[in-house]
Design goal:
The protein is an alpha+beta fold and 148 residues long. 41% of the residues lie in helices and 34% in strands. Keywords: Signal.
């Protein structure tokens, strides 16, 4: 009986610990670092010579229920749909950049979310993009884009 009780306590502790890790809140500094890292990974995929393993690396930092929302460009994309698009465009040779597409220029950190201003040079002009990254623990659960 005592062994069963001890085992029950250990199993309960394991599940409580697992839930605590999933719900972990990152500090402002950790969120900023995470957004900059994701930005680097996104840029890497768009470069000449990128590989499917680069897409895999990016998506390893997204939750299983990750969604990408960009109303101007089609609405809501599931993790699987977005992954398949990245791979399709990569294999078609569409990603041939020689310089990073995005540069993070400003961030506002909230609770498990970061509002990000990114800029890119498009047809000789600086274009600014607004994005919001939401987190569950150490992984991105949602990206919402607010640019045309």
């Amino acid at each position: 009986m005592k062994i069963a009780y001890t085992l029950l306590i250990l199993i309960s502790f394991f599940f409580i610990s697992a839930k605590a890790t999933e719900a972990e809140t990152l500090t402002a500094s950790e969120l900023k670092k995470a957004v900059n890292f994701i930005n680097e990974l996104q840029n890497k995929i768009l470069m000449a010579g990128s590989q499917v393993s680069d897409v895999d690396t990016l998506f390893s930092h997204y939750t299983e229920d990750f969604v990408y929302i960009h109303e101007v460009y089609g609405g809501t994309y599931t993790r699987k749909h977005l992954y398949n698009n990245y791979v399709k465009f990569l294999k078609a040779g569409n990603y041939q950049r020689k310089n990073d597409r995005y540069k993070v220029t400003a961030v506002i950190v909230g609770h498990n979310a970061v509002s990000v201003e990114r800029q890119e040079i498009f047809e000789g002009e600086i274009v600014k993009h607004l994005s919001v990254f939401e987190f569950k623990g150490h992984k991105v659960s949602k990206i919402i884009e607010y640019w045309k």
